[in-house]
Amino acid sequence: MTGQTAPAQPGAQISVEVPAKINPHLGVGDARADGFHALSTVYQAISLHDTVTAERRSEDGGEPGIEITISGEGAGTLPTDEANLAHKAAKLIALYAGIEPDVKLHLNKRIPVAGGLAGGSADAAGTLIACARLWEVEIGDAELHRLAAGLGSDVPFCLKGGTAIGRGRGEELTPVKAKGTWHWVVATTDTQISTPDCYKEVDRLREDGIGRYSSDVDPIVKAFERGATADDMARLLINDMEAAAVSLRPQLASLMHGGLEEGALAAHVSGSGPTVLFLATDVKHAVALARRIRMRGGAKSVHLAHGPVDGPAA
């Protein structure tokens, strides 16, 4: 998104689809002075999407402001006030433009909630773009990235999608030209893991000599660039938070083991969890694997996804 956005007509609705993210490589360093951990990660956007729809609140006779409604995943449980990252995103883009926020946002959520797939960050990214288009805000890519980074570490990637290296706390992005498509079975669980708690557990385990900082992303980046097979990719998946997630929620180990027994090439905790990703050879294998994992039990829901896919500002 560079230069002037497309103007919105009176009564217009702006809808933006934003993909979930996974981290095929997630290296977690020591905590920095600002409290964040240094990251060396590789992001990939996958084909689970939330849709953000924006329209002017005042056109229905209401007062200007920010109103949020939610359907799908998390409806009735997720906040619709200032605690929602989409609300913060709408307020931020209005502040940037020097205008009073006037938007009714509807979040149709298909990305599993609190699962390490950046659903909240996706909603924030979609809100930035939808509101910019609705309010005809002129904003370049660099400024959009800056606003996104101020909202959260994963928001800048959710704007772009595709595949990218993330440094710093994840917001410093370098695009990767991935060749090929990789197929995943995404299994959610009934439990939740707080991301700050997972980072604390990483630190605790390292004090006990368990785990290390996997800072080198080159092997998996080169594999993506050459279009490596799923079998090759299975050996390169790394998540420094996986041991901490399993330590906090031991039932994840059973789910991962079960998926491997059913034929997954690899089992990989998504981010800080508790969602587990199972790598499949191709779409046919993924469909069969998903069916077997559902029949086996232990997962709250099972989804099919592939990546990489583009983000709304690609």
TrEMBL record:
Residues covered by the GHMP kinase N-terminal domain: 84-162
Residues at the active site: K21, D154
Cited Pfam families: GHMP_kinases_C (PF08544), GHMP_kinases_N (PF00288)
Binding site for ATP: P112, V113, A114, G115, G116, L117, A118, G119, G120, S121, A122
InterPro entries: GHMP_kinase_C_dom, GHMP_kinase_C_sf, GHMP_kinase_N_dom, IspE, Ribosomal_Su5_D2-typ_SF, Ribsml_uS5_D2-typ_fold_subgr
GO MF entry, a single one: ATP binding
Catalytic activity: 4-CDP-2-C-methyl-D-erythritol + ATP = 4-CDP-2-C-methyl-D-erythritol 2-phosphate + ADP + H(+)
Domain GHMP kinase C-terminal: 230-293
EC number: 2.7.1.148
Keyword Secreted found: no
Domain of life where this protein originates: Bacteria
Broadest EC class assigned to this enzyme: transferase
Family: Belongs to the GHMP kinase family. IspE subfamily.
Database matches in PANTHER family: 4-DIPHOSPHOCYTIDYL-2-C-METHYL-D-ERYTHRITOL KINASE, CHLOROPLASTIC
Record's function text: Catalyzes the phosphorylation of the position 2 hydroxy group of 4-diphosphocytidyl-2C-methyl-D-erythritol.
Designated name of the protein: 4-diphosphocytidyl-2-C-methyl-D-erythritol kinase
Organism: Glycomyces luteolus
